[in-house]
Design brief:
Blueprint: H1 2-35, E1 44-48, E2 51-55, E3 62-67, E4 72-77, E5 83-86, E6 92-98, E7 101-107
Length: 108
């Protein structure tokens, strides 16, 4: 009988610990979900010939184009969050920066 009570007590304690652990995990998940901030749409950059198409950029930001060695080639003030900009630069690979967003593009 003592062995049965001991096994029963261990089983009850194990179930209790499991329930507390499951509740803690669920609470952590709920807290994490509540802290998430809504995601901003990512900035889209597409290079076609000598044109750069931009979408979802922060309003009033600058479109900066750098050569692969880090020399600034072009800087354009963006008045709208989306648009198409003509750039007169040589064919090749460039780095585009808009605010905190950086993208690699190929001008062909």
């Amino acid at each position: 009988m003592k062995a049965f009570l001991t096994i029963f007590a261990v089983l009850v304690i194990s179930i209790g610990i499991g329930l507390v652990s499951a509740h803690a995990q669920q609470t952590n998940r709920m807290a994490y979900a509540a802290k998430k901030t809504p995601e901003k749409p990512s900035v889209e950059v597409v290079a076609i010939d000598n044109r750069i198409k931009v979408a979802n950029a922060p309003a009033g930001s600058k479109l900066e184009i750098y050569s692969v060695v880090g020399i600034k080639v072009v800087e354009i003030e963006m008045k709208q969050s989306s648009g198409e900009y003509a750039v007169n630069i040589a064919k090749g690979y460039y780095i585009i920066r808009i605010g905190e967003t950086v993208r690699k593009v190929a001008i062909r």
